[in-house]
Structures are given as structure tokens and as C-alpha cells.
Amino acid sequence: MTSPIGIEDGGTAAVTDGAPEPAKTEEAKSHEGRSPGQLMWLRFKRDRTGVVSACVVLFFFVVSALAPLIAKVYGKNPYTLYAQEPDYPFLLDDFAMPSGSFGGMSGDFWFGVEPKLGRDVFTMLLYGMRTSLYMAVIVTSLCVLTGVIIGMVSGFFGGRVDYWLGRVTDFFLAFPQQLFFIAFMPVVTAMFVSPQDETPTYLRAVAITLVMWFLGWMGLARLVRGSVLTLREREFVEAAKVSGASPWRIVRKEILPNIVTPILVQATYILPSTILSIAFLSYIGVGFVEPTPDWGRMFAIGADVYEQDPMFMFFPGVALVVFVLSFNLLGDSVRDAFDPKTGR
After folding, report:
1. pLDDT in tens, 301-327
2. Which phi and psi angles does 330 have, rounded to 5°?
3. DSSP string of 247-304, one letter each residue
4. Residues 193, 197, 202, 207, CA torsion sign
5. Which one is predicted more confidently, 343 or 148?
6. Alpha-helix residue ranges (DSSP H) falling in 108-254
7. Cα dist from 105 to 113, 125, 183, 309, 313, whole Å
8. Neighbouring C-alpha atoms within 13 Å toward the C-beta of 34
């Protein structure tokens, strides 16, 4: 049943005599007029695990960036052999092990001292985190950029371009990564430095970056290619083609914004994996070497003395586990925030 209601211009409007429209839920009201980015941020803030993980990851990056300042305030550095300093005559015992309890922990050395050489473990950990995180960020950025470009070109143009880029990707995937790291790292450094000379730290960093970039982009490239193959047949992409938009504009405006989620999530998995790979290279002796502080080198030293001084490996081990776990949990939370259908 409807009833007319007079309007100023003489018209009528129909009003339904049925039940009133159901009230919107608070969640629906909160989502009105919000962009996808704002909705993602709201979902992410509700995930306590994701927020805590983000705070932990941010803490690690801030501490790494401020490592020189913290070391200056602390009054130690990771290079000085404090066991040979006259101020600490009894830092090591007759077996070159820390003379104090728990690896030599004290008010002067918060995390103890290194066996045999007597370096400060706290500053070694700070600078080791700094080295690993900076390297991982650079390698991850290069891998993501390369993977996105190759996957985008392969998926968008298809045909022969897709075929040959696919074969190149398959070729690189055929390399056994860990064995290639071990075999190729000495080759890269030997190309620029004589075997009789010590390899500079910056050259080792460049070699590690090149080798890990060389073998780290293929997974993301395949992921991006699959997403682009799906999107390029969608109506909005076809409409952009009909309207005369250039391929660059279609990729930049129509396709790339729709694959940000898988790219970002994959990047959050690549970075901790890269940190573990860098630590592995240093652990086996083909990455960073003395006296450069590094997580992997600390594990290599700790593996030799764990029976006499298990505390030396405790702090770098806990730090590495906490960081990698937090970053992986952060990746899961970011994925759930972008795509609530996958919520845990």
C-alpha cells in the first residue's frame, strides 16, 4: 500500500507502508566512505598479533639504525679486544674463556664477552643485526623489483615474450641455491681481488648482494605473472585497451594496483629468508669474515665454544628467532588485512 505525499513542485512521492529498513551494523557504518587502504589499516589494527609483530620488527630496525649511537652511549665497540686492555685484566681465564658467570655478564659487559678474544657481545650483536638487516633490505628490494618487472612483462604481453622469459626463469630455478652460493662467492671476490690480498668488506657485501639477487627473484616473478595473466582478461583492462590507453598506462593504472597485495606479502617472506641466507653464508665462511660483525659469524664462533660457553650463542640465537618469527607473522597479518576472506 502506498500513499501520496505532496511535494513543493506539485509532484508526488510514494512511501511504502512496510517495515522500516533494517539498521546497518556498526562495522558496516565504519566502512562507509573508506578507501581500500583505510579498510586494510582498520583490519590490521584489530589483529593484535600483527600489531605486536610490527612493533617488534620496527624495534629491530630502529636499534640497527641507531647501533653506533647506542654503542657510543654504552661505551664499548665490537672491534676492541677488551681482554688485552689494562682495565680488564681478568676478563678471560687461563683457557681463554670468560671468567665471570653466564659468559662474563656484568655491569660493564651486559651480554658477556667473546671467548678467546674478549670482545663485547652486546655491541657485536647490535652491529651484526645492522649488517644483516641492511643487506637483507637491499637484496629484497632488488629481488622484488626484478620479479615484478619480469613477471609483469611476461604476463601482460604473453606469446613469445612469455615463453622466453618463462624459460629464463626455469633456467635460474634449476640452480641449487645453497651450493651455488658456496661455489660462486669465492669466484666473484677473486675476479676483483688477488688471492694474496684480503677482500674488502664492501666487496664482500656487493658479491653477496649480486649472488642473492641473481637467484632470488624467480618465485615472485612467477607469482606476478600468474596474477597478470588473470587480470589482463578482465573487463576493466579490456575497456582501457578499447579506449586507446597505452600498455604502460594499463599496467601502471589498471594492473599494478590490483597485485600490490601478493607483492607486499611475498616481500615480507623474502626478507627474513634473505637474512637466514646471509647468516648461512657467513657461518660457512664465504660471507662476511673477521672483523665484520655479523649474525652468521656469531653462530660460527658459538658453534666452536658452545660446550664451554653456551651463553655466547644464546643472545644472537634468540634475536634471530624473534625477528624471523615476527616478520613471518607480520606477513600473515598483512595478507589477512588485504584479503579478509583468508582471515585466520
Report:
1. 888 887 788 888 888 889 989 998 988
2. -65, -40
3. HHHIIIIIIGGGSHHHHHHHHHHHHHHHHHHHHHHHHTTSS--TTS--HHHHHHHHHH
4. positive
5. 148
6. 121-157, 159-173, 177-190, 201-214, 218-231, 235-242, 247-249
7. 7, 14, 39, 12, 13
8. 14
Residue type at 240 in one-letter notation: A
Q: Which three cell numbers stand for residue 341?
A: 576472506
Separation of alpha carbons 78 and 97, rounded Å: 17
Residue 10: φ, ψ to 5° = 95, -5
Distance of CA 191 to the CA centre of its chain: 30
The candidate with the shortest Cα–Cα distance to 229, out of 207, 248, 192, 255, is: 255
DSSP line for 47-77:
-HHHHHHHHHHHHHHHHHHTHHHHHHHHT--
- φ/ψ of 47, rounded to 5, equals -90, 100
d(C-alpha 286, C-alpha 171), whole Å: 24
Cell of 191: 675476479
For the CA atoms of 28, 29, 33, 36, the dihedral, rounded to the nearest 10 degrees, stands at: -40
Q: Please state, in angstroms and rounded to a whole number, the distance separating the CA atoms of residues 152 and 147.
A: 8
84, 124 in Cβ contact below 8 A? no
Distance CA 274, CA 180 (A): 15
Contact status, residue 104 vs residue 91, Cβ threshold 8 Å: yes
How many whole angstroms separate alpha carbon 229 and alpha carbon 162? 10
pLDDT tens for 102-136 read 777 888 888 888 888 888 889 999 998 888 888 99
Report the distance separating Cα 156 and Cα 225, nearest Å.
8
Q: 147: which strand partners?
A: none
